[in-house]
Amino acid sequence: FLKKEWYDVKAPTPFLVRSVGKTLVTKSQGKKLASDGLRGRVCEINLADLMGGDEDHAHRKIRLSIEDIQGRNCLTDFHGMELTRDKLCSVIKKWHTLIEGWTDVRTTDGYTVRMFAIAFTKKQDNAVSSNVYAQASQVRLIRKRMVEVMNAEAGKVALRDLVKNLIAESIGKEIEKRGKKIYPLQNVFVRKVKILKKPKFDITRLMELHGDSGRDEGMAMERPILRRLHLK
């Protein structure tokens, strides 16, 4: 570890916890800079850790990519989101229809995002049969509603606001609201989000996302008290 050094990883504004951890990199040697080895590195963090330990968000994983280095701080941007495997396994049930849909959306600030959504049919109160299977025509209509909602919700906002909507589960709730007119739904989630294409790097926008967390400032320290030693 003599040739290694630690850098702090900083999360952007949609998340409550800004200092999310440290990452290790080889020290700068000659023309090979440590910052070059950090740019583009992707960190995977549980959303609960980014939201101050709130366990209601523990079923999501967030990916942050390091975009720039300021002093010892690695400034990151949103790079993707995914449901945890244990959450996916817990919502899959037999005798229910699984409905999936995906679409590519361009946000207002130039990011091309691929979004995947899932939904499951729900048993009605007056149902007699043990299975809850939707017809193929109903599945197609619900999938169409999924794509419409994802295009509408993600295409009218910037990436920062899209991340806020993903945290609040508002897109999944809207899909459930519109889809239940065709067939009752439950466990509706945006399962995965991938960044396919990013706009040209803008340091001003990145600094706005991070605010004061990107500054490499030292801590204030008290002046030490000097004591005179009396030697015998």
From TrEMBL:
GO terms for cellular component: ribonucleoprotein complex; ribosome. One of its GO terms (biological process) is translation. Signal peptide: none annotated. It comes from the Eukaryota. One of its GO terms (molecular function) is structural constituent of ribosome. InterPro entries: Ribosomal_eS1 (IPR001593), Ribosomal_eS1_euk (IPR027500). The keyword Ribonucleoprotein applies. Keywords: Cytoplasm, Ribonucleoprotein, Ribosomal protein. Coiled coil: none annotated. The keyword DNA repair does not apply. HAMAP family: Ribosomal_eS1_euk. This is 40S ribosomal protein S3a. It comes from Oxyrrhis marina.
